[in-house]
Amino acid sequence: VAAEMHASFEPEALKAQTVAARTYTLSKMERTVEAHPDADVYMDYRCCNAYTSAQAAAEKWGDHAAEYEAKVQQAVRDTDGQVILYNGQPILAAFHSSSAGVTANSGDVWVSTLPYLHSVESPEGEDTVPNYYSVKEIPAAEFQQTFLAAYPEASFAGGPETWITGRVENASGRVESICIGGVTVEGTQVRSLFGLRSACFTAEAAADRVTFHVTGFGHGVGMSQYGANRLAQEGKSWQEILHWYYTGVTIAPYGG
After folding, report:
1. Residue 59 — left, alpha, or beta (φ > 0 → left; ψ -120 to 50 → alpha)?
2. Residue 50 exposed, middle or buried by CB count within 10 Å (0-12, 13-18, 19+)
3. pLDDT tens column, 116-129
4. Quick one: which of 220, 239, 238, 225 has its CA closest to 9?
5. CA–centroid distance for 187 within its chain
6. pLDDT over 70 at 92, yes or no
7. Are 240 and 123 a contacting pair, CB within 8 Å?
8. What was the pLDDT predicted at 256?
9. H-run or E-run covering 223
10. 23 phi and psi, to 5 degrees?
11. β-strand 164-169 against 133-139: which pairing, if any?
12. What was the pLDDT predicted at 212?
């Protein structure tokens, strides 16, 4: 929890994060993961959950270390044993930093559509999220080289106005697909290839550079952490926050 959500967030948001992280871990324990077949969970945010040691957290928090450690510990105690369930089983409790006003359907980002990971409105915005809007500029030669390495069939023979066309949005406002160098690719692939903060972006090409304008941070599926904090500020409980972001779930102890 200390690694996944900033401990300055509201207590109810921290509790929601605690239950989501606990549930995510349990869901991983229910199946073998190819990336780490000998372990239930890998403490790397790119695969499973982020992790930080108590010492590293204290160094990061500085003068707030004692206060923040107490908040995290309290969130764990107050939600002890509570898990998010769908049909009696722990859900894949995905979460991300911030959405562009709407979370994403799981099927828009991953292969499968899960019934509890539907697109919902999320209340955070530029007034509550640092770097809610971001810009990434890439030299034109580097942009072409990077894309050609992944898609050698692409061609940038025409002028810059022909390099990027056919942008298609999905229902949550993220890029469903876009045509680059004559090759149609998914927005999530572009995000990964160029290290964008999210797949909610626009792109402009010029002779010397390509500029991405990006909104939000993360894959967009499940609970938005900044959205959860905003809901907590509005007075919602951790249970209400989880029901907001995960459709049709129950919250209860899980015996395995």
Report:
1. alpha
2. middle
3. 999 999 999 999 99
4. 225
5. 14
6. yes
7. no
8. 64
9. strand 223-224
10. -65, -40
11. unpaired
12. 98
